[in-house]
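pinned: reference chain
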Amino acid sequence: MRSAGLLVFDVADELDAGTLVAGEAGYPRRARVRAQCAFAARQTMEAVQTLLDVCGTGGFAEASRMQQYWRDASVAARHAALNVHVGYEIYGKSLLGVAERISPLV
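pinned: its structure tokens
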């Protein structure tokens, strides 16, 4: 989970520094940031899954806050911008210099 935080803080630092302004950051940098965010979302989901494993089936009860955390994290991690497979493909193509883009968000 620490690695997810470090990745997200790195992106936040770039945003604060103004290096990720749309159009100015450059495609490779934006592709890397997207992959970083997707990986952080995946790591977060794995941490939530571990917590659920510890909670057991009671963690899925409607009255359980854990169920709400799991649901919220699951929805957020499935957002199109955080899809790890798409993020990795975009980043990989940028590293290889492949001009074809699969997402208009990058």
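why pinned: The mean pLDDT is 84. The chain has four helices and no strands.
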